[in-house]
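=== Structure Prediction Worksheet ===
Name of assembly: unnamed complex
Input type: mixed (protein and possibly other molecules)
Chain count: two
Listed entries:
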Amino acid sequence: MAQESGKAAHPTEDSIAARMAEAGIAAPADCTPGVLSNLIVLQDHVATLRAFALDPRSASAMRFEA
Amino acid sequence: MTTAHTAPLTAIAMAAKVRSGQVTAVSLCQAALDRAEALGGEHSGFTRLLRRRALPRAAAVDKLVEAGLDPGPLAGVPFGVADLFDVAGEITTAGSRTRLSASFASRDARAIVLLEAAGAVLIGTQNMDEFGYGFVTMNAHYGTTRNPHDPSRVAGGAAGGSAVAVATGTVPISLAFDTNGSLRVPAGLTGVIGLKPTYGDLPREGVYPFVESLDVVGALGRDLEDVALVRTVLREGAPERSDPPRGEIAFGRLMSWFDDNISEEMRGPLDAFWNRLGRISFELPHSEIARAAASVIIAAEGASLHRPALEADPMQFEPPVRDRMLAGLLLPADDYLAAQRFRSWIQARLRRQFELADVLFTPAAPGFAPTIADPVMMFEGKSIPARSHLGIYTQPISLMGLPALVLPLAGDFAMPLGIQLISAAGNEPLLFRAARQLIDKGLCAVPPPPART
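=== Predicted Assembly ===
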């Protein structure tokens, strides 16, 4: 079933294993739970970012000075 | 806190004695090396002592003095660097065993060159969290650095070794780095002064990167003027961006994100400090989003930087660092770009914030240093790992690129408590003037080095 638009599906251990393989990383299965919990935290951060609707033209993503 | 020693000499006082011939640079460096050795790695903060390099250089400083020449404003002052500054002829480990077979550095990092050109003498490298990814300096490969005020507690991190080397009085100054609070958190937890400059203000050449869009070189010290002098030396005479405003400094406490999750032991002293400064408060809107953006940027850039090592053998990394970096590798590019876009947007908005207050302040960390046995803290009512969360008040400031100065609150507390002063970008002279005012008013003070128990 399609996800609600803009809302990311939570990763699973299986999806983590598949994505790491696609990324060319051969990490033992022991790593998967730790990667999963970290990715879920990052997804929460991403959700916080996405909830703030910043027009992509309102600021540059490539400016590196304060 | 444990019984205290008297305050050691400042770097400026040491240099004055060397320049006047009252003491030799060799004796100062020998004493610092001996003290670091006697304390041992866990307690001194040092991972490597560079006797064979340091003592001839100190002798060269003494020869200049004997010849009637001036070795510079830091003549004979021993200092250390976090183990991600290149030191010629040494491996820059960045706290990771993945770099054990890396090439030797061919030259010193620019910041080391500049301090030594001013007469200072590098005596060793200092412990850190692996690649700077953590707030506790509990390194599976190079050991845990203990807090000198209570060795059962963490020093904070990532540059915990650099803070401890100063807090113990082993050296008066350390060079360190700050990505997301890396030197500000340990400065707060060990009771020393830590400068995180404006992004891009101090030279990063020869410093092993972690997150290029956030990394800065900074300094730790026990004395405000020492830290200001190090900054001056590292800036090589670059003009200041702006003149600090004259007259009364307007302080403001940041609320909301920066007022949530404060521990009981911090809240009372922080409120008392605020009362003395006039109880003015401000909001720094979108701080939570700033922290989220910083976390995304760190994960993505850190993972990208270390991708070759992760591909070669992920098991060489410490498990917490490895898992965070592997997760970072899986982030979509769009999310990283959104975080960078938010960064630009909030930096532009922040310029207006400082029309209302000159210096803003927050806690440097939520409370006392957590214990090594159970390194956790409370966040939103839950017990969570301190390794990833001690920098909740420093992270948003990093994303904004602002300068910050951490000072210990004055008072008889069981452990040091630090506050973080923040100014507009490029306004470090104002930060130093504000800090001097707080010290002179008795609101901030660096505790003497604790005696070993």
